[in-house]
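Postdoc handover notes: sequence design on the structure in folder B. Input tokens:
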């Protein structure tokens, strides 16, 4: 399960973008240095970006054109909660249809009603069980404090990435709004990797400016976040909008296909594969693994530890990184996990890296019964 990074753009309606030409969509995305495009593939209980007059699905050639240029394709769906199981199954069908790199759940005003935590949980449990190895993002309002009783924590519990809509509508302070949003989400009981979405559009007489788009990107990078998205392609590319170029020109290269991901990303992928051998391969031959109860050293003992962890302590677990920090050759990782027998809410590990291998690992966590 990969971790998203770099610049992304939401694509709402294919027919409004580059005259609906898939090759042009791929070319423009590549020229802008986008690492990913978020394509609307479902709305409620049905598919999206379909020409209903001819029953043509516009998505397949766009997915193919983006993939041909090494751009990740994430799907997204606006949900209503009227039939949570059917909505989730439509999402699952579209993710599998295109083998999408990730999927984003967009929940807004319909869930700002008391009792909507129930359909939210029904939807998310069904979605997660149907695409257990696909990264899930959650997209909603920028400030939780303004939008209760929307069940933020229910959605985040089953998500891997938090993608709040940090739209500075009727204002001009994107950096300050980003910090306020980030702090509010960090204060929730469920915390996920924060990957915000900025404004590259206009509404009700207000429009973002090129300078504000650049300021938002700079603020995201200054906070050490892995990247961000923007809403929305057709607005940003519209005549005279001038909002595409600041995204295109901002120096945030998409990840190279030949460049290995950071070891924290590979570590998350490995533990989520539930393969002890794959996890142990990330360690040097004489690596040391320390917990509050014991210290072990060497490949065979570390392999034994992961056999016990992944098959006995946390069988069938799904692991989520909630925060990372890097200083010199030390990575600090906070994480949670849900398994068939228990869950972890307080995981915190320190990884000492040498020659791109884990040489020292201190791990702390407690397992609570499910």
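Designed sequence:
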């Amino acid at each position: 399960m990969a971790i998203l990074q770099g610049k992304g753009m939401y694509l709402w309606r294919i027919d409004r973008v580059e005259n609906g030409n898939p090759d042009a969509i791929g070319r423009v995305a590549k020229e802008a240095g986008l690492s990913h495009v978020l394509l609307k593939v479902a709305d409620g209980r049905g598919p999206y970006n379909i020409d209903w007059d001819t029953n043509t699905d516009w998505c397949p050639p766009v997915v193919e054109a983006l993939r041909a240029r090494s751009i990740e394709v994430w799907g997204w769906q606006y949900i209503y909660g009227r039939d949570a199981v059917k909505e989730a199954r439509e999402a699952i069908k579209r993710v599998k249809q295109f083998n999408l790199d990730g999927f984003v759940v967009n929940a807004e005003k319909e869930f700002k009603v008391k009792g909507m935590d129930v359909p939210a949980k029904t939807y998310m449990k069904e979605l997660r069980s149907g695409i257990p190895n696909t990264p899930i993002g959650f997209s909603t309002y920028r400030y939780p404090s303004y939008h209760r009783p929307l069940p933020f924590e229910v959605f985040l519990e089953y998500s891997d990435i938090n993608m709040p809509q940090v739209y500075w509508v009727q204002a001009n302070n994107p950096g300050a709004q980003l910090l306020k949003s980030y702090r509010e989400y960090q204060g929730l009981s469920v915390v996920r990797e924060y990957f915000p979405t900025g404004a590259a559009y206009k509404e009700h007489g207000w429009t973002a400016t090129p300078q504000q788009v650049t300021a938002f990107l700079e603020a995201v990078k200054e906070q050490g976040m892995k990247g961000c998205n923007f809403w929305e392609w057709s607005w940003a590319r519209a005549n005279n909008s001038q909002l595409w170029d600041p995204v295109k020109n901002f120096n945030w290269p998409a990840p190279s296909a030949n460049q290995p991901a950071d070891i924290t990303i590979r570590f998350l992928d490995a533990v989520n594969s539930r393969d002890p051998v794959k996890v142990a391969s990330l360690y040097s031959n004489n690596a040391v693994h320390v917990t509050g109860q014991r210290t072990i050293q060497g490949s065979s003992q570390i392999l034994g530890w992961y056999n016990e962890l992944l098959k006995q302590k946390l069988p069938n677990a799904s692991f989520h990184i909630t925060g990372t920090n890097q200083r010199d050759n030390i990575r600090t990782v906070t994480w949670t996990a849900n398994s068939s027998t228990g869950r972890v809410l307080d995981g915190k590990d320190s990884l000492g890296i040498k020659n791109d291998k884990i040489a020292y690992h201190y791990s702390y966590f407690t397992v609570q019964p499910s």
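Context for whoever picks this up: The CA atoms of residues 23 and 65 lie 6 Å apart. Don't rerun without checking with the PI first.
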